[in-house]
Amino acid sequence: MFDLTGKTALVAGGAGYLGLPVCTKLAEQGASVVIADINAQRATEAADEVSKTVPGSRVAALRMDIANEQSIKEVVGKTVEKFGNLNIMVNATTVAAG
Predict the structure, then answer these.
(1) What are the counts of helices (DSSP H) followed by strands (DSSP E) for the chain?
(2) Which of 9, 11, 30, 38 is 20 to 30 A from 63 in CA distance terms?
(3) β-bridge pairing 32-37 and 59-63
(4) Angle, vertex CA 33, rays to CA 67 and CA 91, nearest 5
(5) Are 53 and 24 within 8 A, CB to CB?
């Protein structure tokens, strides 16, 4: 597929049923991955799962509320601080019907 070594991806909704496979595939291709989710515990669990599935991967979990501009700015800043860059952003959030 693609060689994403040296690239950093931020996946909003990364702990969800759409986002987790995206995070795993990005890590398999060599990207450092930030799993950002409104649910911090699920983000941490998803990061642990990706790390186990893709040994040696660089994965971080952060809480992010995509409806809050300040939250997004903070996560982008933390991503760049931790991995040195931000090259890929994916919105894998879902909205529950209600």
Answers:
(1) 3, 4
(2) 30
(3) parallel
(4) 35
(5) yes
